[in-house]
Amino acid sequence: MGKSVILPGLRANNDLHIGNYFGAMLPMVDMAKTRSEEFQVNMFIPDLHSFTTPVEHADLYDQILHNARLFVAAGLPLDNPDIHLYRQSYVPAHSELTWILDCFTGYGQMGRMTQFKDKSSNATEVSVGLFNYPVLMASDILLYGASYVPVGDDQSQHLEFTRDIAERMNSRFGELFTVPEPVAKQHEFFGKDQGLRIMDLVEPTKKMSKSNDTGRGVIFLGDNPEDAAKKIMSATTDDKADVVYDPENQPGVSNLLEILSLLRSQKLADVVSEFAGQSRYGDFKLVVAQEVKNFLTDFQARLAAVDDNAVFTKLESSEQIMNEQANATLYRVQQAVGLRKRND
Ligand code: ADP
Ligand code: TRP
């Protein structure tokens, strides 16, 4: 048996914003760096999942590579043999296992998935892909016997489903799958990173999201730094004229304090005390705007310096190793369900 597996996945439908960056990508990269001595880290881009939300097909291929480069610009080392970086669709076993698991998954159980209900309730057309999305996610996890999967609250139900189908298959066919740890254990393992929520700049009671219509309240990693600074200057605040951290009553100002602490990698409490007593929001915003400008300028320079050949080499070598690991699991399943000759 090799090392236990940690499996973080991040979708690549759109340019990422600073919420995705500080809430997901950076914690994943930090985790990969700190845990790779003890664990195998499977960092992957679930590109087949992209079609379950609106996507620009003409741009998708480039977007996927762009996300791989973003991981590198965020500090992911390419020379660590225990950290893999791969694209889901380059490992065909994901799709094949999904079909098999589909046939052991109840229609009713999928219909009860909260994310499916949310996303299908106001859609004009609901695809079968959106419906069985959790089964593909279960395959992503089970093919590699992953124990730890960093997921936000919105994905916890899918992780529970993964455990459920793994346990059911195991009790019917013998020990086929490693069952991932339950959600509570995942939280314990990954710590507090899960909870971060950067809010929209225009509507600070809603989370910053790539699906927000205008993008005026969202800072994308690819934004022109000057334009991003302007978004900060026009962020919604309040009429209290007091820079304090009070998300309930002053969500806009609190969000800017949070953003500043992330950009500077400084403790929130230190940032809050630096501005204690400040009543002029304009001056405070100027500081945040400048910091956003510096961050984006710096990040974009790092991104431009990423060596595309090195990224391709890493993707290809990881994909080869992942195909071997995934095919070994798939073969065991195919034997168990009667598609391949058994060893006995
Ligand atoms: P979006 O809402 O932009 O579509 P996703 O739902 O695809 O983002 O989330 C991708 C990852 O980024 C998830 O791990 C999620 O927890 C994280 N994330 C998304 N928005 C934020 C935010 N505003 N603040 C912190 N983390 C976020
Ligand atoms: N469903 C996840 C999301 O929307 C992405 C994802 C797909 C994933 N497969 C995964 C995350 C496997 C972790 C493990 O964010």
Mind explaining what this structure looks like?
With 344 residues, the protein is mainly α. Helices cover 54% and strands 5% of the residues. It has 13 helices and 4 strands. A 4-stranded parallel sheet has the order 3-2-1-4. The longest helix has 30 residues, at 308-337. The chain is globular and about 75 Å long. Bound molecules: adenosine-5'-diphosphate and tryptophan.
Strand content: under 5%
User: What is the alpha-carbon Rg in Å?
Assistant: 22 Å
Q: Can you give the mean pLDDT?
A: 95
Number of helices: 13
What is the helix fraction of residues, given as a range?
Answer: 40-55%
Strands ordered across the widest β-sheet: 3-2-1-4
The major pleated sheet works out as:
4 strands, parallel
* End-to-end CA span: 22 Å
Strands, count: 4
Strand and helix order: EHEHEHHHHEHHHHHHH
The low-confidence runs, each spanning 5 or more residues with pLDDT under 50, are none
List the ions, cofactors and other small molecules found in this model.
Answer: adenosine-5'-diphosphate, tryptophan
Shape: globular
Class per helix and strand makeup: mainly alpha
